[in-house]
Amino acid sequence: MKTIFLLLSVFFASLASVQPEHSKSVFISEGESMAPTLKNNDRFLVDKTYYDSHPIQRGDVVVIQLANNRQFVKRVIACNC
């Protein structure tokens, strides 16, 4: 487990060195609707520019922001892929 954490830390540190600071955010999941992928209070990093160069695909986990600034984490189950 420590090895995986170390590898992920190195990976995200290298990402931080090549991407602008405003292109990523840390989110905290609320609730169990994404279990077992995300559990309540799990923290995860979101790259806001990923879909500028990649198409959305079935199975992707995305953060959706509504007009009232509420945010939801959802898995893509259907798309025009």
Present the secondary structure layout.
Blueprint: H1 2-18, E1 24-28, E2 43-47, H2 50-53, E3 61-65, E4 71-75
Antiparallel strand pairs: 1-2, 3-4
Query: What letter string, H or E per element, gives the SSE order?
Result: HEEHEE
Number of strands: 4
Low-confidence stretches: none
Rounded to the nearest angstrom, the radius of gyration is: 14 Å
Structural class: alpha+beta
What characteristic shape results from the CA principal axes?
Answer: globular
Strand content: 15-25%
**Helix content, binned percent:** 25-40%
**Biggest sheet architecture:** 2 strands, antiparallel
Helix count from the secondary structure assignment: 2
Termini separation = 35 Å
What is the spatial order of strands in the main beta sheet? 1-2
Average pLDDT, all residues: 81
What does this structure look like?
The chain is α+β, with helices and mostly antiparallel strands. It is built from 2 helices and 4 strands.
Summarize the structure.
The protein has 81 residues and is an alpha+beta fold. It has helices at 2-18, 50-53, and strands spanning 24-28, 43-47, 61-65, 71-75.
Key descriptive features of the protein:
81 residues, alpha+beta
